[in-house]
Structures are given as structure tokens and as C-alpha cells.
Amino acid sequence: MSAPLVSLRRTALLLRDVFAARTRRELCAAHAALMAHVRDGGPGEPPDDAEAARLEYAFNRLFIGPDKVPAPPYASVYLDGEGLHMGASTLEMRALLHSLGRTVPHGGQPDDFLPYELEAWHGLTCLLHDAAARPAARDALIWLCEEHLGRWLPVFLGRARQAAPPPMLGEVLNALEAWLAASLQRSLYEEA
């Protein structure tokens, strides 16, 4: 597997961990790990208590709630019409996950939750090692990146940035945007 693809796979899992975090501690640890990776092993220290509180507050304000959030991390919101959850794009992701032999652990999140989609991308890249699975995995990756993630993540990123996130969340959004741009390069999936 090419070095860029290995790095992107690691980035996808670290981004998954950030967006799947359920507690302040998980969020801060995931953020530190992501920053260490994108900075090529540079500082990945967890934030101090005040920064951690700001990060958690901003993360909840932008992505979780309890109030209406500016950037929900669900594809269906952007692909199936404003405010619509569990639409056609959710079912498409469910079918993709099932084709990988995975089911979503429904802890209240639909199949098109960003962390699940990042994990699906990761799983498909793992299938590129198998000569028999490679053609189908490559086709699924192209669909996932170009027709799915490539359509909704730019809008999601725009909304999140418009909500003026603090620098720590801005770094996460930058990492997601860079990951998306790299994952859209079809040549990555030809080299594996």
C-alpha cells in the first residue's frame, strides 16, 4: 500500500474518533492524537482544562446539540433535503456497510453518521489488498468519495466554519478537508 494511502487511512480513523467522541476526555484524546498525526508526530498534548471545556462546548454547539446545530454530521441532512434524516443516502450507506459485512451499532446514530462513513472508507481501502475484491472495492471507493462524501462534506465544512469554531476545532475541520481532497484522487486506489 502506498505511503499516502497508509497516512490517509490513519487520518480517517483519527477523524472518526474525534467525531464519535462521547465525553470530553475522549474528544480531547482524539484531538491530540489527530493533531500529532497531521503534524507528523509533532505535539499532540491534550488541552488544559479550560481549553478542553471550550473544545467540548464548541463541539456540542456545532455538531451535537441540544439545540439546533449548524453542522449536523449526517450525510442525509445535506443530500436528502434540509433537515431530513434517515433518507435515501442513509439507506445507500447501510447497503455499503452491509456489503462490507458490517452493521452499524445503532447507539442512536443513523448509518450515514460521519464516523461510520470514515470507517467504511477505511474498510474499503483494506479490501484493495485482495486481488479478487480490488475491482469492487475501487468502484465502491470512487462512489463513496465522489458521489457521496465529496458532495456533502464540503457543505458540512462550510457550515461548521461559518459558525466560527475555535482554533482547535478549526484544525479538525482543516484535517477533514485535507483528507477529503486527498481521498478524491482516484490514483490512490489504483496503486494499492
Key descriptive features of the protein:
9 helices; 68% helix; 192 residues; mainly alpha; TorD/DmsD_chaperones; Molecular chaperone TorD family protein; TorD-like_sf; DMSO/NO3_reduct_chaperone; single chain
Please describe the topology of this protein.
Layout: H1 3-20, H2 24-38, H3 49-64, H4 75-79, H5 88-99, H6 114-127, H7 134-162, H8 167-183, H9 187-191
Helix pairs in contact: 1-2, 1-6, 1-8, 2-3, 2-8, 6-7, 7-8
Organism: Candidatus Desulfovibrio intestinavium
Pfam families: Nitrate_red_del
Protein name: Molecular chaperone TorD family protein
Descriptive report:
It is a single chain. By secondary structure, this protein is an all-alpha fold. The chain is built from nine helices and no strands. α1 (3-20) packs across α8 (167-183). It comes from Candidatus Desulfovibrio intestinavium. Keywords: Chaperone. Pfam families: Nitrate_red_del.
